[in-house]
Amino acid sequence: MTMADALKTENPWTPAHQAVELSDHATLTRILDEGADADEVCCQMTLLMHAIDTEVDVANQSGEPIDSALTAVLLAYGADPHLAVNGEAAYDWARKHHHDMAIRLMDRFSTRPTKLKARFSRIRRR
Q1: How many angstroms separate the CA atoms of 72 and 43, rounded?
Q2: HSE-up of residue 101 (Cα within 13 Å, Cβ side)
Q3: Which terminus of the chain is less hemmed in, N or C, by CB atoms within 10 Å?
Q4: What is the spatial distance between Cα 17 and Cα 21, in angstroms, rounded to a whole number?
């Protein structure tokens, strides 16, 4: 199913969630770049939760190795891996589904602001 076909049928997804559902990285990137909220919630899932769910499902159904391209795009646009919906966050979902690549990415992005802040404070002191 193409993105155009998916948008013609009635579904509960927002355009960003539909792009995640279809693993359409280019459309997701465009939508986020145009200003969509990377922490958008639809159908009780953040975009990042949905990305993790999709990446795991695609790997399980195809037999191909799991990837984390959707997760990486969302994190690059500022998605919060610790934003909880109904008491669970994307980070929890990744751990539950053993999506280790997504966990490593979320760890790196979660600590990045702290690392940058520390780096810039050292630079200012010189």
Answers
A1: 21
A2: 13
A3: C
A4: 6
pTM: 0.79
Q: Which is it for the CA torsion 73, 74, 77, 81, positive or negative?
A: negative
Tokens of 40: 């958008």
CA distance 39 to 70: 13
Average pLDDT over residues 115-124: 45
User: Which two three-digit tokens encode residue 85?
Assistant: 């919906």
Give residue for tokens 């010189």. 126
Task: Return the residue matching tokens 């990486």.
Answer: 72
Give the DSSP letter of residue 69.
H
Q: At what angle do helices 69-76 and 47-62 cross, to 10 degrees?
A: 170
